[in-house]
Amino acid sequence: MRKLFTDIKAIHGIEDNTKSLLKGAEMSRVVTIHDAWLLTENGNFANWGSMQDSDLPKADEIISLHGLEVLPGLVDSHTHCIFAQLRSGEWEMRLKGATYEEIAAAGGGILNSAYKLRIMDEEWLYEQSLWRVKRMIEHGSTTIEIKSGYGLSIESELKMLRIGRRIEKNVKATIKTTFLGAHAVPPEFKGRQDDYVAHIINDMLPAVCAEGLADHMDVFCDRGFFTPEQTLLLLEAAAKYGLPAKIHANELGITGGVQVAAKAGAWSADHLEHIGNEEIECLRNSEVMPVGLPGTSYFLDIPYAPARTIIDAGLPFALASDFNPGSSPVCNLQMVWSLGCSRMKMLPTEAFNAITLNAARSLRLEKSIGSIAAGKQADFWITETHNAIQSVPYFFGVNHAKTVYLSANQA
Amino acid sequence: MRKLFTDIKAIHGIEDNTKSLLKGAEMSRVVTIHDAWLLTENGNFANWGSMQDSDLPKADEIISLHGLEVLPGLVDSHTHCIFAQLRSGEWEMRLKGATYEEIAAAGGGILNSAYKLRIMDEEWLYEQSLWRVKRMIEHGSTTIEIKSGYGLSIESELKMLRIGRRIEKNVKATIKTTFLGAHAVPPEFKGRQDDYVAHIINDMLPAVCAEGLADHMDVFCDRGFFTPEQTLLLLEAAAKYGLPAKIHANELGITGGVQVAAKAGAWSADHLEHIGNEEIECLRNSEVMPVGLPGTSYFLDIPYAPARTIIDAGLPFALASDFNPGSSPVCNLQMVWSLGCSRMKMLPTEAFNAITLNAARSLRLEKSIGSIAAGKQADFWITETHNAIQSVPYFFGVNHAKTVYLSANQA
Predict the structure, then answer these.
(1) pLDDT digits (tens, 9 = 90+) for B132-184
(2) Are the C-beta atoms of A11 and A32 separated by less than 8 Å?
(3) Are B248 and B257 in contact (CB under 8 A)?
(4) How far apart are CA B158 and CA B185, in angstroms?
């Protein structure tokens, strides 16, 4: 099936399909062609060119895009979008002066989500989570990573990951799941953190892998959560099951997370609100993609990952939503793109590459998604907003996506 | 024509229709009823009650809202939504380090908008601006104030205000226009600021009023713009034509704007990023509504108006978008509500009242809009988001309005 999209004002984000990531000064590069056509074949991008060409390619279907602009599908590489309910009450507590850590200590935070999720009917949890994923897709995210970690028991972690796989089957976007049993220590293991680590390794991980429910393993390595030593044990155990590592690192302090990520060969180290030169050197000597989560910094009013320092050091950088009910209630990756610029001083082009090709790389999916390149999945969205790479993040707080096209529907 | 809306999960923002504004501790009050019906009659709210009532009122039409929540239409009391084009290029300059004032000095800023607007075809400007107003309405704003001020010549100011009136005729929302010839000094009057003030008073104001194009007069009273003395002259001249005053005050420094507002009996003093005790005392002894514009503070990375101090001093407070291409490219008042909480530490209820009843008061429209009250215009919107007063501003960067109902369509 060949589909020809015509009358496109601009196609943004065309990138050589051998390029696996963009780093340093390269990150400000976005290739755009104007007054264009775009051809897809069996769900993949096939070719593009100018409407001035004397012959347009033949196709089974021709769709005019009436002067709108085309961008590649956005990649949200870090979300916690399966959850029982919004935690706006805790937010109101914070507005009155409580800190995130105080709320966690008072039984709120991740454990509050875990409590609510454990008692929630699986069907209802699935419906709610599916609704959220559909909202994310409407806002242009065509690849979404989803973590467990609000279960913190075998039964509830499996419940979350099964829902992740059900969502994968029931939407046309690309869904990847991550086992995050080590998101917090559940109340049953209070004061026995090492026992919980052993439980994850000996009981939860085998159960998750027996059903093939996870694509990656993740650990919250930070002050008050898991130590670097525990994190390494967990990631090494996961590696034995073939699960690649991702990591929550350096959100609350300089706590060794980046170093563990490098040692474990993690695909990404996410958060990075607190890093210094040592962490940057460590990232430079690794294949770990640094991932910033500006929605969290904005919402918790904590420092932002030093994107400028990272990029100016010649490194790559990705951005994700961290969509979750406690620290980042934002499902719109265009808003994250905007925060990356307004708050981290990334250029619009840099932040665009951070939610497309580099985000794909953080999931090691850069060969199939993340840019408009021949042979990649034909995931893209169209917008009425002119000069979209600059104007979408500038004109913030709304959805600029008029229609989202998913590869699975082009086949 | 009586319309009965049934199966409403919650109706928020019911307020006694004799209440003209909420101040101090009252601002955290929002009256909500659950499991409700809502009756409109000839485009006005008529009554509401519980779905458990034994008899529901008779109506010409019955519409089930299927368990969604109802909020009163939002009131955006300060916008510059008639403009020629986005200024995302200037934003990129700022991301690279230039300040707002440096950009203005380099010919950008308001004068850049004025240059582009003057040469823009009126029909095209109307179409673009109408498109923006429709976006604002989709996001729940049912009353919108629109300022001139990107013309800065008789011809171009009239062009803007005529477009404002055309928009008023062609949408069902409530539109009010404001003459802001004193937004900046145009290049033709460079170095002759007093001459420009005289030109506004002697030539522009009479022309605007002869056609009945403006509902209010506004002046940008600040460092580098108009002095308090010039502002007072301008507002007194407007008063002779029956035009009530609004004012841009204290955005760039403690520059006397609030005092002029009080002296001129202005309906509102907007911005207020830089105010001290003296300004708060001055507001307390006046009928001036203080209006914060957090989109501007967020986007320019300047201080926020001290909402907490103002409310805790027992004063009322309103919020608006300041939607404009240079300093606040945000048309979604729900995002402004969110910024009011996250950045100004207003409670969700306080910020809600700041974009409904108090915003209506800043336009002296509190008798007809701003809350759900018998006899007020039946402007409202519905959302799937549960516990909307807390959750809409929490779950930020998206549009929570599923459908917006305008009074003019209920009649």
Answers:
(1) 999 999 999 999 999 999 999 999 999 999 999 999 999 999 999 999 999 99
(2) yes
(3) yes
(4) 17
Dihedrals phi, psi of B378, to nearest 5 degrees:
-80, 65
- Which of A139, A332, A347 is closest, CB to CB, to B92? A347
Residues of A in contact with B399 (CB under 8 A): 398-399
Q: Which residue has the tokens 């019906």?
A: B37
Cβ contacts of B398 on chain A, cutoff 8 Å: 135, 139, 330-332, 335, 399
- Among B388, B318, B405, smallest CA distance to B73 is for B405
Cα B74 to Cα B36, B39, B401, B406: the distances in Å are: 21, 19, 11, 11
Find, among B138, A303, B43, B221, the residue nearest to B130 by Cα: B138
Whether A136 has a pLDDT exceeding 80, the answer reads yes
CB within 8 Å of A194: residues ≥ 6 apart: A230
Determine contact, residues B179/B210, Cβ cutoff 8 Å: no
Residues of A in contact with B345 (CB under 8 A): 95
String of DSSP letters for B87-137: -HHHHHHHHTT--HHHHHHTT-THHHHHHHHHTS-HHHHHHHHHHHHHHHH
Domains of chain B and any CATH numbers: 2-72+371-410 (2.30.40.10), 75-362 (3.20.20.140)
Is B91 in the A-facing interface, judged by CB distances under 8 Å?
A: yes
Contacts of B341 in chain A (CB under 8 A): 91, 95
* A352-374 per-position pLDDT tens digit: 999 999 999 999 999 999 999 99
What are the C-alpha distances in Å from A87 to residues A94, A97, A109, A115, B110? 11, 16, 8, 12, 41
CB contact under 8 A, A387 and B88: yes
Residues whose CB is less than 8 angstroms from the CB of residue B159 and which lie 6 or more positions away in sequence, other chains included? B117, B122, B125, B151
- What is the rounded average pLDDT of the residues B299-318? 97
pLDDT mean across residues, chain B: 96
Q: Which amino acid is at B281?
A: E
**Strands B216-221 vs A174-182: parallel, antiparallel or unpaired:** unpaired
- Residues B51, B286: Cα–Cα separation, whole Å: 43
Contact assessment for residue B312 and residue B290, using Cβ atoms and an 8 Å cutoff: no
Chain B residues whose CB is inside 8 A of the A28 CB are: none
Asked if B282 and B302 count as a contact pair (C-beta separation under 8 A), the reply is no
Query: Measured between CB atoms, does A383 come within 8 Å of chain B?
Result: no
Is the complex ipTM more than 0.90?
yes
A88 touching chain B per CB within 8 A: yes
Candidate from A139, A332, A341 with C-beta closest to B95: A341
**Alpha carbon distance A246, A224 (integer Å):** 19
A residues 273..332 contacting B (CB < 8 A): 298-299, 301, 329-332
Structure tokens at B147: 């300022």
CA distance A194 to A381: 46
